[in-house]
Specification:
Length: 290
């Protein structure tokens, strides 16, 4: 009973009315008068505090005033952080694609399988129902491989009556096996041969030498030039990708580029190959069997 009476007494005190009067100090005339209770004061003060906190929070969150808070980044810094994060993510994706692309090219050139390459399902164009498809080597394919290997082994050069002096005994490696679509014609300024082949075919160095030029050109796309011994220079144009850089030493038969269709002066995937000796263009068909 005592506790109940105490609670009732506290509630009664909270509800008791009080008068707040503002008077003129000189005349003691009443200017303003308010009837209040403790409960009303607590309620009004609480609501006012909540509204004030909400307004301050919104002011900080949606106005530039938040930039004056110590440790909070300004707008320019946050935009730079977001842009850098986006660029880094894009760079990681592009580098991953590039690495997988070059890994695939390396496997094609070296004749390895593709088990060590990273496959991204998002980039795959293979229908899932063909994932487990296995191929076997036919008898005809084996015979063709043996004939091709024998041809490459024993027919790297051909004889000709118009060979330049001093290089008649040189054995040139075939840069790419294919069909010649446009032969050498110095009269019209076509100082090489155009060899047609499938896109992404490997292109090989004809001799040991040092790469002296490997850049993009407007008319002939990706071009690579190799300086060989006996004042010989070989030039390979319209490539899709260059595998060597200037200053690198390459061996005869080593892959130096991938066949492509780059440059404005091209009508399809082909290799434009030139052979120069002492500053004079030679007809490659007199020295190499394509």
């Amino acid at each position: 009973m005592g506790e109940v009476k105490e609670k009732q007494a506290i509630i009664k005190k909270l509800r008791n009315k009080y008068r707040l009067t503002i008077s003129n100090e000189s005349t003691f005339e009443e200017a303003l008068s308010f009837r209040l209770s403790r409960l009303n004061v607590f309620t009004v003060a609480g609501l006012f505090s909540i509204v004030l906190i909400a307004l301050i929070t919104m002011l900080i969150a949606f106005t530039p005033l938040r930039e004056y808070i110590p440790g909070y980044p300004d707008g320019q810094m946050r935009r730079s952080i977001e842009q850098n994060s986006t660029l880094v993510d894009s760079l990681i994706v592009e580098l991953d694609k590039r690495d997988r692309f070059f890994e695939g090219i390396k496997n094609v050139i070296s004749g390895n399988d593709f088990e060590n390459t990273i496959e991204d399902k998002a980039d795959s164009i293979v229908d899932p129902k063909y994932k487990g498809l296995q191929f076997t080597q036919s008898e005809n394919d084996s015979i063709f491989r043996k004939e091709h290997e024998a041809e490459e082994k024993f027919n790297l050069t051909i004889s000709g009556e118009n060979k330049a002096r001093g290089i008649s005994s040189i054995h040139f490696f075939t840069p790419m096996k294919g069909m010649i679509s446009n032969s050498y014609d110095g009269l019209i300024g076509h100082y090489g041969v155009d060899v047609v082949g499938p896109l992404n075919e490997r292109i090989s160095a004809v001799m040991d030498g040092t790469v002296i030029f490997a850049e993009w050109t407007l008319n002939t796309g990706y071009v690579i030039q190799i300086q060989h011994g006996k004042d010989l220079v070989s030039i390979y144009k319209h490539n899709q990708e260059l595998l060597k850089k200037p200053g690198e030493f390459v061996r005869a038969g080593e892959a130096i580029a991938i066949l492509g269709n780059s440059g404005e002066l091209t009508s399809g995937p082909h290799l434009h190959f030139e052979l120069w000796h002492n500053g004079k263009a030679l007809n490659p068909e007199n020295y190499i069997k394509f």
